[in-house]
Amino acid sequence: MNHDTPLPHSRLRTGVSIAQTQPWAGDRVKLDSPALAVMTDLTKIKAATVLPSVPVKEAEWHMVYLGVHMLFVVSEMPALEGLITSTDIRGERPLRLIQQRGVRFDDLTVSDVMTERSHLETIDFYKVMTATVSNVIATLKSCGRNHLLVTDTTSFGAVRARGVISRSQVERQIGEPIHLPDVAGNFAELVKILC
Questions:
Q1: What architecture (CATH level 2) is domain 35-194?
Q2: C-alpha 12, offset from chain centre
Q3: What single DSSP character describes residue 195?
Q4: Residue 78 has pLDDT above 90, yes or no
């Protein structure tokens, strides 16, 4: 075909649908597989984000729509302000704030229940590069977390969120549940324990 020849085209008809992502269907990941096999690499997959001023209910709908359980909280891309998880939204903190403030759930914003950047623990990307899935599971269990944030340092010396490891993704990929101790099931609960 000549490089200047347009491709055949036509108009859309009724009944056209949008392709949906398919559930992960690759080979099962084993405990001795590289940890990178279970990390969502943010240099390859766009981060799911939300503004701190967004109502909590809208953030929850956004999570459902995207099929995720965590959103990065940013005011201006790419500056990270914190994280919000589905557990944060449906945990004790929103209930406590509703009681304290005398407001409705619909009045709460992401900034009310998110875990701020200063309270987030991270794992170094270069450690993840040499780790196994078994190491990741041990870390999830020792932290009592559903998500692990992975950071690296750019050539300019800036620290950035490089990836995320999600307990639910690891469970899908290994084909079995990961039972976490009831330490601090989410970032907001950990903040509550530390404060």
A1: Roll (3.10)
A2: 35
A3: -
A4: no
